[in-house]
Protein 1
Amino acid sequence: MSRLTRVKALIPPGLRTRISARRTSRTRFMETPLTHAIDRWAFRRSLEAVIVRTGHLSGVEWLGRSIWQFPMDAWLIQEVITSLKPRLIVETGTHRGGSAFFFATLFDLLDIPGEVISIDVAAEQTVPHPRITYLAGSSVDPDIVGQVSQRAEAVGGQVLVILDSDHNAAHVAREMASYAPLVPVGGLIHVQDGWVDQLRPGRGFGDGPTIAVKAFLAANPAFVLDEEIEHRYLLSIHPYGWLRRVSQD
Ligand SMILES: C[S@@+](CC[C@H](N)C(=O)[O-])C[C@H]1O[C@@H](n2cnc3c(N)ncnc32)[C@H](O)[C@@H]1O
């Protein structure tokens, strides 16, 4: 018995039929329960490899500035900013300012009004840009939340909240409670780094963002997961990462 015949014998008969039925077109992407399982394994493995090889993404750059983002997810943010056209982006977690700079330069390229508030308790550096305001302090400090709320009210329009500071579930929960009221219907909260709850290098971290997101969604029916955004490019480190407000309360 050849090796291929031995492997085929291991595949249940029903699955064998489905695989051969989908092989009728060479251009068609083969999808079976088996390929789904292989895909999930391959996605996790490639994400883990990229995360480990890039020093947890610390070497990624935008226009020469350090931006601590997975490139495929950054592309997705670019698409979201282009379609949502937020008047204000609130980012928690400045780090070296590269992501705030990324958002600000996208506003420049789109040639639309838009500003960025980036908050960090201990930013390593900032990248100056006329559209960016940096706030020093904890993202859940009532004084900081008050300043951001005042600005959101003053500028009006759509708001995109991007949570990329402390990824501990309790902190993310407090951030969502603080900034969700600023998001109008149609706007989005982007909760980053849910990968820590799912992939091997993140294990040992404790409860992370996905735990906070699930609890938030259960308590706040005005928000739903936007799975179309989340799964658009398959490779993402932000599972449960996009929440859209669909009603006022
Ligand atoms: C993952 S980095 C942010 C990366 C940045 N958004 C980027 O894409 O380049 C996380 C940052 O969150 C900051 N941070 C941690 N706890 C915080 C808190 N309670 N409030 C605000 N920032 C916090 C850290 O100082 C760190 O600079």
Protein 2
Amino acid sequence: MATRRFNICSSAVVLAVALAVPAAAPAGDSVATRTPDLRNRPHNKGLARFKKTVARQAAKFPTAYFLEASKRTRAVALTFDDGPDPKLTPRLLAVLAKHKVKATFFLVGSRAKRYPKLVKAIHAAGHAIGGHGYQHVSLKARNQYAAWWHIRATNNVLQRILGVRPAFYRPPYGAVSDRQVAFFAKRGVKTINWSVDSFDWDPKRNAVERITGEVLKHAHDGAIILLHSGSWRGNTAKALPTLIAELRKRGHGFETIPQLLGIPAIKRVK
Ligand SMILES: [Zn+2]
């Protein structure tokens, strides 16, 4: 039923009518109308498996694990993983400032420690910050305590620099076990993956036009879009102005992850 309703809503006629209606959703209509999914078409078996896993986890943990907005909204969230990086992060910040877009940066703890000024610059510009592992390693196969160590160590660094601890996290490679999701949620940290992958991380698919093409092909209301702020992602910064302009032209606004999901940005420190 939910899927059917989404299909009807995606037709051009109804969409045109919907656009004329005020943005605020009526009471009781704040949940998503379809099962959250990774929208990209997988081009290998690993990605096909990943797509299934994330859809299953989003259905299993509707308040602790997110691929997209859980409310009706035309807004999308741009998210940048793997920073901070002394070359690329300032370039991304400059483009975002020029276009008046607030985004979300998922920072690697050891890199945040090394570049505290960049962490402060991201925060001062009004972007949201979450952790992305203390080192960039897959933690899915580890027990929940070992994975939690990465979140805590990263949040300790961020708290020393910014005075606040993030309340949300993105696992490196999007890889996280069900047990870890539940364990983190109990400790006040929500897990954030994505619904649209730009493939800017893939050297075979990250020409500027391919990054914009892939995102624009799959972008949707409430999308969480995966991009990167690691050192060799120069094309991400080049693709960003077109990406922002095109998404705006289609009527999408930009929100940070806490805004898009209606979740706290930071944890209260006891
Ligand atoms: Zn990453």
